[in-house]
Recover the amino acids of this structure.
């Protein structure tokens, strides 16, 4: 049973458009929610992260929206660029054990 | 800093063989983890360690063994390889942080078991 559910599995967006990826969780012991970006043949790299006491965090074109009551969080990529084409993973950390659980990933393709 | 390094990059094993995937980090991170990545499954935690001499199981530990004798190294042992262990394996490290804790990932080892 996957602890973090991610959707959609794949996403095609035109250059300049907005990419939105959603994640949901159940475990209230999660205390840190990072998003990772992975290019083919590479390891994941941290993109942006949020704590549950904050409802939104923005870094450049990337924004996390967090809804604690609904146990949902999402990644918004504004003005999407072809260079953003990658696989994106949401994750959640179980604080007591520093264990991370990952979503199943979203493959984003930004068309020029 | 080399960051997190993994060897080998690619490996082909026959069913029943054993091998060790190597992972090392030079950032003096206390926490280290092993994940496997399979299509449509994301990354799943195999084993993790919160410091030298301390390891624990993750979501999918069966068939794998770990030890942590130094802060820098965290090898993953496959005891008797099975085709179900065909996957891409990532090692990650991070520092303890109550507010977060960015994980740094290695480049991965692509393992095929025939």
């Amino acid at each position: 049973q996957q602890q973090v559910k991610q959707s959609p599995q794949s996403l095609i967006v035109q250059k300049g458009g907005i990419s939105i990826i959603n994640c949901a969780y159940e475990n209230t012991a999660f205390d840190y929610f990072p998003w990772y970006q992975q290019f083919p043949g590479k390891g994941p790299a941290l993109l942006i992260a949020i704590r549950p006491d904050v409802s939104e965090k923005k870094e450049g074109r990337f924004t996390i929206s967090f809804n604690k009551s609904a146990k949902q969080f999402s990644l918004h990529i504004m003005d999407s660029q072809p260079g953003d084409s990658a696989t994106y993973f949401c994750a959640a950390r179980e604080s007591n054990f520093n264990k991370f659980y990952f979503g199943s990933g979203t493959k984003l393709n930004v068309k020029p | 800093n080399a960051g997190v390094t993994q060897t080998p990059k690619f490996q082909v094993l026959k069913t029943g063989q054993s091998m060790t995937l190597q992972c090392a980090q030079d950032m003096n991170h206390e926490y280290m983890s092993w994940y496997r990545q399979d299509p449509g499954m994301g990354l799943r935690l195999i084993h993790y360690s919160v410091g030298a001499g301390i390891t624990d199981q993750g979501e999918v530990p069966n068939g794998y063994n770990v030890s942590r004798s130094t802060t820098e190294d965290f090898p993953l042992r496959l005891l008797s390889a099975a085709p179900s262990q065909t996957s891409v394996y990532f090692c990650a490290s991070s520092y303890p942080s109550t507010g977060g804790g960015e994980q740094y990932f290695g480049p991965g080892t692509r393992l095929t078991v025939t």
The longest strand of chain B covers residues 42-51. Chain B has a mean pLDDT of 93. The two ends of chain B are 36 Å apart (CA to CA).
